[in-house]
Design goal:
This protein is an alpha/beta fold. It is 27% helix and 29% strand. Strand 1, helix 1 and strand 2 form a beta-alpha-beta unit. The longest helix has 16 residues. The chain is globular. The structure holds glutamine. The site of glutamine has 12 residues, from helix 4.
């Protein structure tokens, strides 16, 4: 299984390491032709305005849109913002998922936090989630499934078929369960599209 990690800015090295631990081949993606032959793609956390600017400069916006329309794609934090359809402001995004996202929803960098999240798909124990100047999902349209909420009800993980988005940074822990969950989405997609 070959999974790309968008490597324009942000925490792409950590994602690649986790994929390698799971036996997948991780491919850093910086240019459109590097998307060829990939079975899935992770868009890392970082700074969505920077990722958007660089993706525009390298001619990646349309190729990434086409990729996400067809193949499993997972956005974490800034990657979630980049995948969303509506973020309430002008900056380059893919608009691939039917979610509305509020950037920097918890405040400034100093308001970053870590917490245990119950994610039914992963079972016990709760997932240790690292939120760094994180976004939240403020609205979802069918057929988006909510995978996790904070205790106050705010949505922080969603899935829409082959698309996954999480507001936190699973690559900054040593818990491989979410990467493994994404690999299972990739595997199922491969089986249904021989
Ligand atoms: N605040 C960043 C943004 O709006 C996201 C932060 C992150 O990816 N940790 O793009």
């Amino acid at each position: 299984m070959k999974i790309g990690v968008l490597a324009l800015q942000g925490a792409f090295i950590e994602h690649s390491k986790m994929l390698t631990c799971l036996g997948a081949v991780a491919v850093e993606v910086r240019l459109p032709h590097q998307l060829a032959g990939l079975d899935g793609l992770i868009i890392p956390g970082g700074e969505s305005t920077t990722i958007g600017k660089l993706a525009s400069a390298y001619g990646l916006i349309d190729p990434l849109r086409q990729f996400a329309a067809a193949k499993p794609t997972w956005g974490t934090c800034a990657g979630m913002i980049f995948l969303a359809k509506d973020i309430g402001r002008q900056q380059p995004i893919l608009g691939a998922m039917d979610i509305t996202v509020d950037r920097n929803a918890f405040g400034r960098q100093i308001d970053s936090f870590e917490t245990g999240l119950t994610i039914a798909e992963l079972g016990d124990p709760p997932f240790h989630a690292v939120f760094i100047r994180a976004p939240v999902v403020t609205a979802v349209e069918a057929p988006v499934a909510v995978l996790a909420r904070l205790d106050d009800g705010r949505i922080v993980a969603v899935r829409q078929g082959h698309l996954l988005a999480t507001a936190f940074h699973p690559e900054l822990t040593d818990d491989l369960r979410l990467h493994s969950y994404f690999c299972s989405i990739v595997k199922c997609t491969q089986q249904s599209q021989p």
